[in-house]
């Protein structure tokens, strides 16, 4: 993923260049040298907006069964309470 940085002036002079660059990654647009906006492809925007928000959704993701994950079993030791 490439990150491109353009000034507002460069953006205004060649919007086509900015749109092409956004296909390969975000385009940071600066005002007076400071980041002010980000141009994304619509696909990248959708990925950002539709991120999984909870553990149930994450566990339901396609391909999750292909991930090897064997957590160790918890060992719970029950001891009588000590009162002094």
TrEMBL record:
Enumerate the InterPro entries for this protein.
Answer: Antitoxin_Phd/YefM, YefM-like_sf
Superkingdom of the source species? Bacteria
Show the Pfam families listed in the entry. Answer: PhdYeFM_antitox
SUPFAM superfamilies per the record? YefM-like
Instruction: Please report which protein family the annotation says this sequence is part of.
Output: Belongs to the phD/YefM antitoxin family.
Q: Which NCBIfam families match?
A: phd_fam
Physiological role = Antitoxin component of a type II toxin-antitoxin (TA) system.
- Stated name of the protein: Antitoxin
Gene source species: Silvimonas terrae
**Lineage, opening ranks:** Bacteria, Pseudomonadati, Pseudomonadota, Betaproteobacteria, Neisseriales
């Amino acid at each position: 993923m490439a990150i491109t940085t353009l000034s507002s002036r460069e953006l205004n002079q060649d919007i086509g260049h900015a749109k092409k660059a956004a296909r390969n990654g975000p385009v940071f647009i600066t005002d007076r040298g400071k980041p002010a906006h980000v141009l994304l492809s619509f696909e990248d925007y959708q990925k950002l907006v539709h991120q999984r928000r909870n553990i149930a959704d994450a566990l339901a993701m396609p391909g999750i069964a292909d991930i090897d994950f064997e957590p160790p079993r918890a060992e719970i030791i029950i001891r009588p309470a000590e009162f002094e």
